[in-house]
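thread: overnight batch results

M.L. [08:02]
morning all. the overnight job finished for the chain we discussed friday. pasting input first so we're all looking at the same thing
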Amino acid sequence: MESKRCFQNRFIDYQTGSAPGRGQGEFGVPLVTDTIESILRQLPAPGTGAEGGLYSGPAGVAYMLFHVSECPLFAAQRQSYLSRARSLLEPCLRLADSEPDRQARAAFLLGGAGVYAVAALVYRALALPDFEEALSKFRELWRVCAQPTFLDCGSDELFVGRSGYLCAAMVLKHKLGMEILTPAQIKSICHAIIESGKQYSKKKRKPFPLMYSYYGTEYLGAAHGLSSILQMLLSYQEYLQPADRELAWQSVDFLVNQEQNCNWPPELGEMIERENELVHWCHGAPGIAYLFAKAYLLSKKPSYLDTCIRCGELTWQKGLLKKGPGICHGVAGSAYVFLLLYRLTGNSKYIYRAQKFAEFLFSEEFKAGSCKLETIYSLYEGLSGTVCFLVDLLQPDQAEFPLFTVFAQ
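M.L. [08:03]
and the structure it wrote out:
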C-alpha cells in the first residue's frame, strides 16, 4: 500500500567500494544560484510580510543567503547575497523592536531573538557597526529567559523557549568566534530549564527525571520536545551542577528506551502505527538523531552512534517526504541526517544517500506528488532550507543542519 506520508525510495543503495557521484561542484553551484533566484522572485514585496521569524519569514531567507555567502564556491556572489540579506532583515528588525511582549521577542525561531542573531551575523559579515546593536538586543533577552515564570505555554522548547535562546547563543559564538553570554547568564538559564523539567516531571509523575510540555503536549521530537531541550543541556553541560548533569544524561538514556522500530512517537507514551508514523526532523528519528549525535560526541559511547545509525536507516527508507522540500518535515531535513552521519563516521555511503535525496528533490515524481506550500521561499518549510542543504552537500565536512549545531563547542 502506498504511504500517505512518503514516496517509495526506489534508489539502489550504496555499494561498498563505489565512489559517491562526481561533478557535484559543477552541477551544484548553478543549481543553487538558480534556486536562490527563484526564491527571491517569490518573496513578498519589500517592507511587507516581515512576520514568521526565522521559521517561515524573510529573516529565514536572510539566514540562507548568509549561509551561502560563507561557502567559498559562491565568493563571486557573496557581497550581493549579503546585501540582499540586509535588506530582507530591516523590516523584520523593525517588527521585532516593536513587539511589546518581551517573552514573544525572546523566541528563537518564531520571534525577535532569532532575527537579532541573524542580523548580527549578516552585519558582522558586511563589517557594519549595526552588528553591535543587533548583538546587544539579543543579549538583553537572557533576563527574560532566566525568569522562572517565563512562558506558560512551554518555557523550554526550541522554537520559542529557553533551549532555543541557548541554541541561538551557541550558533553566534560558533560563527562570530566570541563569547555571547557570560557564564553566570548561561548558568541561570540552564538552571531554569533544569528546575522546570524537574518540577514538571515530579508533578506529573513521569518516567524521566526531566520532562516538559508545550501547550499541554509532552513532545519528544526536535521541534517542540524533550530531545532538543536535552541536546542544549548537553551542549552546555559544563555549566550544570554535577547532579543536574547526571539528570540530563539519565533523561537521554530514558529517551533511548522510548525507541520503537528505529523511531520515536511524537508524544510520550504513544504507540507508533508503522504505516502512519512520522519520520520528520520536527517529530521522529531525523530530529532526535541530533541529540544522540551530541551524546556520542561527548561520551564516545558506541551505543549512541548505533542509535544515530538506526535513525539514518529509517530515514533512507521513509525520508522522501511528500510534505515538501524543506528541513522541518521535508526531504532536505531528511537528507541532513546523512550529512550528520557522514561527519560522525566518515562513511561515503552517507554522501551517496544525501546526493540521491538531492536528486529526488528535482525529480518529476517529487514535483508532481509533493504538497504545495504557501511560503515556498521559507527556511524551514520551503526552498531556503533546501538551498542550505545543497550548499552543505558541496562541503560535507562542514555540513550542519541550519541553526542547530552539534559540532560547535
